[in-house]
Design brief:
One of its GO terms (molecular function) is transmembrane transporter activity. With 460 residues, the chain is an all-alpha fold. It has 21 helices and 2 strands.
């Protein structure tokens, strides 16, 4: 049986299937960021108000759009705890499958919800948020269970490229479907249908324990488990939460991820509006340029993930290097966005691309530091990075709400870029003295060690 190439490389099937699932859930919730542009022109949405003026039921105000973005964030925040617990308890196979199906259903129902009115749409967005909260702990579990330690950077880089993958595919597809004869509704139906197919494959192929999977060869299992401790290999539902939360290495990882995520979400969410209103590109140009500006993020992620696993320089110096490019340097570039004149519109597009590309190198920085420091508890550390993303979903629109009253004002957007970029730069400076690749003391705290400690205290 040792000759079966699939069984000897099954971890790659798992990681790419994981990527497809993560992308599907994120795509489902970001479609609307793009279809906003087309929905307001939908002739079927024109209604007559009581005083005789016409309005379009699909033309949302800035406040309503914020609510539509925030509904997902609320769902994600409320979902993170319970879903994390279900992962620790049951593994990722079933909980992630349920999340994927919920997301696909909510997506297919979105056009109907939008037709019925804002409260119905917000309820569906909330359901998508609940499903989305399953994304990050899933990355952690797939890495902890299936990634060989020597390929940690590569696995994190593949799995975390779900954000750019979703952005590129969804913006391009939605831009095209929006303008087609099928209308903006078709973007939701196509994405929803794809979600059902992808998650059917997940439930069929995925197993939380490589050692019990009939699809994995003995050789492959040895590769996956090399250098892992027994505590790392055995799945235990014990997690020393408090010990992890007060660890300074982990706190530094979380601070860096928070400021980086906030800026990334800010750019991804508001770039369609910025390109359209400030830089004055057409709808189709906006769709294409945003997809293009985010394209380089993905190769940057994969290359930096692969590079960060190569044994040149020490692990710690590699972490410093990748964290500086993805948080420090990206922060400086974000500040420069504020100083590029409006008339240099293509220069702005290039600068957006540079910021996205630099941010793509984060898997060799704080992600890897968190995974190495937390070892078998890495899924919790990565799930909390997801939680940072939820808070970022509030923080990013909040900075826009504070500074931007006129969406076409270059200087108002400039304040937002300066604030976010500066915070990233500061977070990166904190990373230098604290980053490490060594397992932290809490990794030696297991259920067994806690019980032994209790026994010792009782005897004493």
């Amino acid at each position: 049986m040792g000759m079966n190439p699939v069984k000897n490389r099954f971890r790659y099937l798992v990681v790419f299937l994981g990527l497809a699932c993560l992308t599907s859930i994120l795509s489902n919730y970001i479609i609307i960021n793009f279809t906003f542009i087309c929905m307001k022109d939908d002739p079927t949405g024109i209604e007559m108000s009581d005083n005789g003026t016409t309005y379009n039921r699909y033309d949302y105000s800035v406040a309503e759009k914020s609510a539509i973005v925030w509904a997902v964030a609320v769902g994600t925040i409320l979902g993170t705890g319970p879903i994390n617990y279900s992962y620790v308890r049951y593994g990722a196979r079933i909980p992630f499958f349920i999340a994927g199906i919920v997301s696909a259903f909510a997506t297919i129902l979105t056009p109907f919800g939008a037709y019925l009115g804002l409260p119905y749409l917000l309820a569906l967005r909330f359901a998508q948020g609940l499903a989305y909260s399953a994304d990050f702990a899933a990355i952690g579990i797939v890495c902890v269970r299936w990634a060989p330690l020597a390929q940690t950077g590569l696995f994190i880089s593949i799995l975390t490229s779900f954000s750019p993958a979703a952005t590129v595919m969804t913006n391009a597809a939605s831009g095209w479907l929006c303008k087609s004869s099928y209308g903006w509704q078709s973007a939701f139906y196509v994405h929803g249908a794809a979600g059902f197919l992808i998650f059917a494959a997940w439930i069929y192929f995925y197993n939380d324990d490589p050692q019990f999977s009939a699809k994995v060869s003995a050789k492959e299992l040895t590769t996956i488990q090399k250098d892992k401790t027994q505590a790392h290999i055995e799945r235990d539902s014990f997690v020393p939460y408090w010990e992890i939360c007060k660890n300074r290495v982990i706190l530094t990882v979380w601070i860096n991820s928070f400021f980086e995520m906030t800026t990334l979400i800010l750019l991804l969410t508001y770039s369609p509006i910025y390109f359209r209103k400030v830089l004055d590109f057409s709808v189709v140009e906006t769709g294409m340029l945003i997809s293009l500006s985010a394209v380089a993020h993905m190769p940057a992620k994969l290359i930096s993930g692969w590079l960060s696993d190569r044994q040149f320089l020490s692990e710690r110096i590699r972490m410093w290097f990748f964290n500086t490019s993805s948080v420090g340097l990206a922060g400086i570039m974000c500040v420069t966005l504020a100083y590029i004149p409006v008339t240099w519109k293509y220069t702005s597009v290039v600068m957006f691309s540079i910021v996205y590309t630099l941010m793509g190198t984060n898997c060799g920085g704080f992600y890897k530091c968190g995974t190495f420091a937390a070892r078998q508890y890495a899924h919790f550390v990565l799930a909390m990075i997801q939680f940072m993303k939820c808070i970022a979903l509030f923080a990013a629109p909040a900075t826009v709400a504070i500074f931007v009253s006129d969406e076409s004002s270059h200087s108002q957007w400039g304040h937002v870029y300066i604030l976010n970029g500066s915070l990233m730069f500061i977070a990166n400076i904190l990373f230098f003295p604290i980053a490490t690749d060594q397992p932290q003391p809490f990794t030696f705290v297991t259920r067994k060690s806690v019980e032994e400690e209790k026994k010792k205290n009782q005897l004493a």
